[in-house]
Design brief:
- The protein is an all-alpha fold.
- It has a domain at about 35-105.
- It contains five helices and no strands.
- It has helices spanning about 5-20, 50-55, 60-70, 75-85, 90-105.
- The radius of gyration is 20 Å and the shape is elongated.
Length: about 120
């Protein structure tokens, strides 16, 4: 989902003001989403394909800050392609339909905690 134009313009103006005033340090919030914190094996998620040691890994503050510094290295078009491949409404609906079909024919509970 693209960033709304108004939000993009406000952020650009803020960053421009910081640059013009030659501020090296200024407040900027980066939200880190805890993608691996959930322990459910849900369809469409993709995280359940990772080994347990990866799922249990936590970033330090320093590692998170270093990761933000590497953001310009990302191929934005490639990230968008992966998002569209994994998280379209159609793809996720098809994944859920497959899960429901398995649940209908299963004799044991489907949901399980990852790492069990």
């Amino acid at each position: 989902m693209p960033i709304p134009l108004r939000q993009n313009m406000r952020m650009s103006a803020y960053l421009f003001r910081q640059k013009v005033t030659r501020r090296e340090k200024f407040p900027l919030i980066v939200e880190l989403e805890p993608l691996f914190s959930c322990n459910l094996a849900c369809p469409g998620c993709g995280k359940i394909q990772y080994p347990t040691e990866i799922l249990r890994k936590r970033l330090s503050v320093e590692e998170a800050i270093a990761a933000v510094g590497r953001l310009p290295e990302l191929d934005r078009a490639g990230v968008r392609r992966q998002f569209e491949k994994r998280f379209t409404a159609r793809r996720m609906a098809e994944d859920y339909l497959r899960v429901y079909e398995r649940l209908i024919h299963a004799r044991r509970p489907f949901l399980r905690a990852v790492g069990e």
